[in-house]
Design goal:
By secondary structure, this protein is α+β, with helices and mostly antiparallel strands. Helix content is 52%, strand content 9%. The two termini are 32 Å apart.
């Protein structure tokens, strides 16, 4: 199985797990607020649907994607927020169906990208497996907001490995979002997977090191938990400062989450 096929398999499974939760959700609950200020569950699903839609366009119609990006005057964040109105006016059953349709089309398009071919994206072209990994990040992050709104504990799986890899590759996004220059260092990451496996990235001899739970690392880099509530520690001043600003997505960091904001849910 190719690396792209592995990522696609995990992306499909991660999305299907969130779908299972949403499928049994009464319509009235789609209006419930999530920890993201101003966003309901419907907003979260609409955002995911739009992301899958444009990822599918990038993979299947690169020229159309480039034209769309060139037409956006106020930046992608504003375009994403504007697109939410298109989704949140839909009744829950229609919104769920829309997400399923656009999700399936996006995943199919990414899976069909030939080996070695890159896909246009926001700043530079990406290999399809990296863009699919970004899809896992988006699904994990916005899915976490939905789980938190519903008071449901996440069932951790090793599917988060590709989110970890994506966060390691995009380690400079937190600096970029704040207009800061990244330090001229390399980090070592040693993270324990839900299965107990050790995932290690970066040079073994690095002075700056990130250590801890892979799940908590993912919650940290998606800014769904404050670092004080994560089993993730740093060795070295640069790594320690990074834990305060880490984010695995472009654009504004947002307010993040407060220390102790979420009660520990039963496993």
């Amino acid at each position: 199985m190719s690396e792209l096929q592995k990522v696609i398999q995990d992306l499909s499974a991660e999305s299907a797990e969130l779908d299972r939760i949403l499928a049994g959700l009464p319509g009235a609950r789609w209006k419930e607020p999530t920890p993201a200020p101003g966003w309901t569950i419907a907003h979260q699903v609409g955002h995911l649907s739009f992301i899958y839609r444009i990822a599918g366009m990038a993979a299947s119609d690169p020229d159309g994607f480039r034209s769309m990006m060139a037409s956006i005057k106020d930046g992608l964040s504003e375009a994403v927020n504007a697109a939410l109105d298109e989704y949140t006016v839909l009744p829950p059953a229609e919104l769920l169906a829309r997400w399923r349709e656009e999700r399936a089309a996006g995943i199919r398009a990414l899976a069909a990208v030939p080996d070695g071919q890159v896909v246009p994206w926001l700043v530079r072209p990406l290999p399809a497996e990296i863009l699919a990994s970004a899809g896992i990040m988006e699904t994990f992050a916005h899915g976490q907001d939905i789980l938190d709104a519903l008071g449901i504990a996440r069932e951790p799986t090793d599917r988060i490995r590709y989110l970890v890899i994506f966060a390691v590759l995009t380690w400079d996004f937190g600096y970029e979002a704040r207009g800061m220059t990244p330090p001229d260092v390399q980090f070592r990451y040693e993270l324990t997977a839900p299965s107990g496996e050790l995932w290690a990235y970066g040079p073994e001899t690095a002075d700056q090191k990130i250590v801890g739970s892979a799940l908590d690392f993912c919650l940290l880099v998606t800014r769904r938990r404050h670092r004080d509530d994560c089993d993730v520690t740093a060795v070295g001043p640069d790594a320690d400062a990074w834990l305060d600003i880490a984010q695995a997505y472009r654009g504004p960091a947002g307010s993040g989450r407060r220390p102790g904001q979420f009660a520990k849910l039963p496993a």
